[in-house]
Structures are given as structure tokens and as C-alpha cells.
């Protein structure tokens, strides 16, 4: 069994987005998030890092972001303490994007991530 938690933790701690994206390219979101030892802090860090410039590598980033919300556990202390801030920052970044509405894929995909983040905040972190 792959130790995705350790691999992503190391990539995320490097703060080099390209390293994180390279790892994301090699691991399907479903494989990562279904990993039994995946820590909530890794999911939050991944959301934080992938939220940077969503108009670059939009599909890869948004595939991970969309799936991440299904695996965030609001009952975990790290999610209660940091989740709202991380997700609000993601929403703010999306709101600040200059997303071309004529690029239907990017526009819809990024808006869906915003909707999921806002919904998670409102349902679990108020």
C-alpha cells in the first residue's frame, strides 16, 4: 500500500507548488482521499496550496479540490480550528480571479469549487 499521507506531507511542506502538482498528476484523487491514514491537516494544506491560481492547470486542481470536501471531517480538531480560515481564503481567491466566462469549463469548474467550499463552511464550520 502506498503511503500517500507521507508523500503529500513532504511535497506540501516543501511549499513548491510544482512538486505538489507533479504528485497530483501521478496519484488519482480517489486513491489519495480513500487512503486510510490520510491526515486532515494534509487535506487542508492541499486545499490551501491548490487554491493558488486556479486558472493554471484548472482541471487537475479542481478535481482534487472537489473531491477533498467529501473527506474533510469537521469533527476533527484541526478542521474545526483551521478549516474555516482555509476555505474562506479559497473562496476569496476564487472571487478575485479574472475568470473568462466564455471559457465555460474553467468558469463552471471554479464556480463549483467555490460553491462546495461555501457549502462546507455554512454546513459544518459556522
Automatic annotation (TrEMBL):
GO terms for biological process: deadenylation-independent decapping of nuclear-transcribed mRNA. It is found in: Cytoplasm. Gene3D superfamilies: 6.10.140.270, conserved c-terminal region of ge- 1 (1.10.220.100). Residues 4-104 form the Enhancer of mRNA-decapping protein 4 C-terminal domain. Its main location: cytoplasm. One of its GO terms (cellular component) is P-body. Keywords: Cytoplasm, Repeat, WD repeat. InterPro entries: EDC4-like, EDC4_C, EDC4_C_sf. PANTHER family: ENHANCER OF MRNA-DECAPPING PROTEIN 4 (PTHR15598). This is Deoxyguanosinetriphosphate triphosphohydrolase. It comes from Macrostomum lignano.
